[in-house]
Amino acid sequence: MENIRLDKYVTLKYPELSRAKVQRLIKEGGILVNGKKVKTAYILSENDDVFVNEKSLKDSVLGVSTLKAEHFELKILYEDESCFVIDKPAGMVVHPGEGETHLSGTVANAILSKVDPDAGEKDRPGIVHRLDKDTSGALLIAKTKKAYDFFVSQFKEGKVGKEYVVLVFGEPSHSIGKIDSPIGRSLKDRKKMAVMREGRYAVTDYEVEKVFESYDEGVVSLLKVGIPTGRTHQIRVHMSAIGYPVVGDDVYGETRRNRKFKERFGLKRQFLHAQKISFVSPDGDEKISVISSLPSELQRVLSSLRELS
User: Fold this and answer.
1) Structure confidence by residue, pLDDT tens digits, 192-214
2) CA gyration radius, the chain
3) What was the pLDDT predicted at 17?
4) Rounded CA gap, 187 and 75, in Å?
5) Domains of the chain
6) How far apart are CA 280 and CA 284, in angstroms?
7) What is the pLDDT of residue 64?
8) Residues designated as active site
9) pLDDT, tens only, 145-178
10) How many helices (H) and strands (E) does the chain have?
11) What 3-state class would DSSP assign to 150?
12) Which positions ≥6 away from 141 have C-beta within 8 Å?
């Protein structure tokens, strides 16, 4: 962390926070260097000790919730007294963003009346993990504070199993592989993530299920992917970093190739689906596995690819 600004360093460690929020927290004393308040532009030295106050992180940075309950139906795949799993459709944001972004129409708005307001952060109660807006599939929600705290711990310890179905451009050189590369917020584009030495630990496991010819865009491969860690955009960043970007992902992939594939196969989104989530309930020792069926749009793409093969 030597020779890097304090606000930039903290943002890399907490990629879910904007630079503005980090700077505000530094000014309020929620982040200290060697036990003292410093300026946001402070340049860190090799032996500096950076302390982040977790309570300040939640109270000062997140502020007062403006989340409002909205009544629209979500498909529930599993439910018990402590939690439930929904089938999140592609195109839906999980929780409101910073500022005036996505204040309504999110999963958090829809589940607000079903969860304890104290079960997590003020603007996203019950939310223990996320799926990207254009990723569909199984999303676990905590109903109570006890369940929330339990699942947060389980996710941190890598005890929640997450399995995805992913279509990528190209054919990986190994049928089974592991990507072990840290991920942080891109220094070139704050809206994107990137593989970087100063990022957070991230591991992605993949297995090639099927290889298809994809008309004039060459080969595409269907993968089964597991992520023991859960960094923002992790699968998309990791697959792009090794040269096999997710089909339909214009952020980390090639726009021209995605456009031609989408036009040919009628795809409207990135081909990334959270197919399975496995966890232990806070109220018992039994392992629960919940499956989300592949959406019809993605099924149609695979059917068309099979016809070409």
Assistant:
1) 999 999 899 999 999 999 999 87
2) 20
3) 74
4) 38
5) 6-62 (3.10.290.10), 66-157 (3.30.2350.10), 158-309 (3.30.2350.10)
6) 7
7) 45
8) 132
9) 999 999 999 999 999 999 999 999 999 999 999 9
10) 8, 13
11) helix
12) 83, 84, 85, 86, 107, 111, 114, 115, 126, 127, 128
